[in-house]
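Hey Z.,

So I finally got round to the flavin mononucleotide thing we talked about over coffee. Here's the setup:
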Amino acid sequence: MKVLIVYFSWSGVTARVAKKIAEYLPADRDEIKCYQYKNLLTVFWLSLFARNKELTLAPLRYEPGNYDLVILGAPTWAGVPPRPVIVYLNRYAHQFKQVAFFSTSAATEEQNVLKTMEQVTGKKPVAVAHFHRALVRREGFEEKVKEFVSRITGVSG
Ligand SMILES: Cc1cc2nc3c(=O)[nH]c(=O)nc-3n(C[C@H](O)[C@H](O)[C@H](O)COP(=O)(O)O)c2cc1C
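And the result:
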């Protein structure tokens, strides 16, 4: 099974989860980056005053259509995935075969990141997971990642 992990990460938490997943499931990794998101001030300005401004993503390394499964990871921003993730999903969802989603957040509970990714892609994920950002530095992190991976490989072979 060819697997691609695609994620957005502002401060490294989601990237860390993506890296850990790749330790248990051989996969290529691609990071979504947005040219306009230079610092948090521009992020807030764009979300408050320029909601409809088109965002430009930095070039990506891999075509998701070449993979059997795409794992998408996103932090939680105001309850949902950051806009560059939505831009990516809108652009590539038609290429996805199977998907799995994970989210990270400051709050202990998942908000609307996983649901939004499902809605935007129109695809039922083979597995989902939510990681509280504090967990990635604690005991139990490896176990949670392993469990997520086993659910993915269990369904997808
Ligand atoms: C602009 C912004 C908005 C955020 N909004 C939320 C939120 O609504 N709920 C939440 O639990 N965490 C929120 N957070 C915290 C991040 O979701 C959390 O720290 C996440 O793990 C960061 O992942 P990253 O390091 O990969 O960017 C927000 C962080 C930022 C920078």
